[in-house]
Design a protein that fits this description.
2 helices, mainly alpha, single chain, 7% strand
Length: 60
Amino acid sequence: MSNDDVERLTGFKYPSKQIRWLRANLYRFEINGLGRPVVYIEQSGKKAKRPQGFELKFAS
């Protein structure tokens, strides 16, 4: 996905907020060398599966 597509998907312009949204919504992505999230087109419709009993925790 392009940077514009990730912005449209998440509703956020800044990479840190995009990453937080992608994690909260269980999307698979990588962070590139520029610190931007990269969601691959073939993965854009697929979410990561959270193991049962697994709780996501984010650093503030």
